[in-house]
Amino acid sequence: MDLQPLGDRLIVEVLEEEEQTVSGIVLPDTAKEKPQRGRVLAVGPGSRNDEGNIVPMDVAEGDEIIFSKYGGTEVIGCAREGDRDA
């Protein structure tokens, strides 16, 4: 991955929600909430404490997490015009 988060930030891939409940009820798009589960793709080094030491993150790449419904910033396609891998 070319993106590297700074500080105590993560890059998370949102996991798709089930379109059908366990009992077999199919959920229409209007009934679905914003996804709240994801897989960690990259982890920043961590935050700094009062002494200036880095406190490592509690999660690692590959962990499955639950995050705030409206937390974070959505990034769709991060290549800029002129980037060689775009």
Order of helices and strands: EEEEE
Q: How large is the count of helical segments?
A: 0
Helix content: under 10%
Q: Determine the CATH topology.
A: 10 Kd Chaperonin, Protein Cpn10, Chain O
CA-based gyration radius:
17 Å
Tell me the span between the first and last alpha carbons: 13 Å
Q: Briefly, what CATH class?
A: Mainly Beta
Q: What CATH architecture would you give?
A: Roll
**What structural class is derived from the secondary structure elements?**
mainly beta
What does this structure look like?
This protein is an all-beta fold. The chain has a single domain, classed as Roll (10 Kd Chaperonin, Protein Cpn10, Chain O), CATH 2.30.33. 0% of the residues lie in helices and 22% in strands. The chain has strands at 10-14, 37-43, 47-48, 54-55, 64-66. It has a 3-stranded antiparallel sheet with strand order 1-2-5, with no helix packed on it. It has a two-stranded antiparallel ribbon with strand order 3-4. The radius of gyration is 17 Å and the shape is elongated.
Features:
single chain, about 90 residues, mainly beta, 10 Kd Chaperonin, Protein Cpn10, Chain O, two-stranded antiparallel sheet, elongated
